[in-house]
Amino acid sequence: MRPSGFPWQFIRLFLHPDVNKNKKWLFALIIPAYWLLPDLIPLVPLDDLLFTLLALHIFTRSAQGDLQQGREKTRTAPGENVIDVEGEVVEEEEE
């Protein structure tokens, strides 16, 4: 049984090779920077947690879009061995 839920979905998307690497780097740099920079509300990490959850949500939605675009590209990739066939049903003639 595969683990499910929001944290596992984020981890799978973050490690998936089809997700844009720039998005991964941006996420990996913005969150720690936000936690380390001076807070809007000192000594209360509530704004940090809310920002992190919002960034996680935005990243997972965006990464899922990357995966869907990747699937569409693989379906119609040029040079792929695909045979396009049209057919019709023909009834057999009785003798």
Number of E-state strands: 0
SS-based structural class? mainly alpha
* Unreliable parts: none
Q: Which geometry do the CA atoms define?
A: rod-shaped
What about the largest sheet? none
Count of runs of 4 or more consecutive helical residues: 3
| Helicity range | 55-70%
Write the element-wise H/E pattern from the N-terminal end onward.
HHH
Rg over alpha carbons: 23 Å
Span of the ends, CA to CA: 58 Å
Overall residue-averaged pLDDT value: 77
| Beta content | under 5%
Core attributes:
mainly alpha; 95 residues
Describe the protein in words.
This protein is mostly helical. It has a domain at 6-69. The protein has helices at 6-15, 21-36, 46-75. It is rod-shaped, with a radius of gyration of 23 Å. The protein starts with 5 loop residues before the first helix and ends in a 20-residue tail after the last helix. The mean pLDDT is 77.
Write the layout of secondary structure elements.
Layout lengths: L5 H10 L5 H16 L9 H30 L20
Helix pairs in contact: 1-3, 2-3
Quickly describe the structure.
This protein is mostly helical and 95 residues long. It is built from three helices and no strands. It has helices spanning 6-15, 21-36, 46-75.
